[in-house]
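Let us practice reading a record.
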Amino acid sequence: MKNITLSADHNLIEKARAVARSQRRTLNAVFREWLEQFTAREGNVQEFDALMRRLDSPIVAAALEARCSILYSEDFQHGQKFSDLRVVNPFL
């Protein structure tokens, strides 16, 4: 299973966690179920690709804000640089 990092409003995340807890589930499990349903819809490949492109920016922004020097990812081009942030594919 692959890990991803998402950014969202703190209050929204806390509300989502509370809903998941009320269903005796984790937010992670709820999100995985949503992602499966989202990708299962017919003709959504382009929609999914667009979502992944939108998720790339917050990941890079969060890493830059945290002053990280390396971002480990198989989704970005190995060696790609964003200011002082360098992408490393851990599987190469």
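A brief commentary: The chain has a mean pLDDT of 84.
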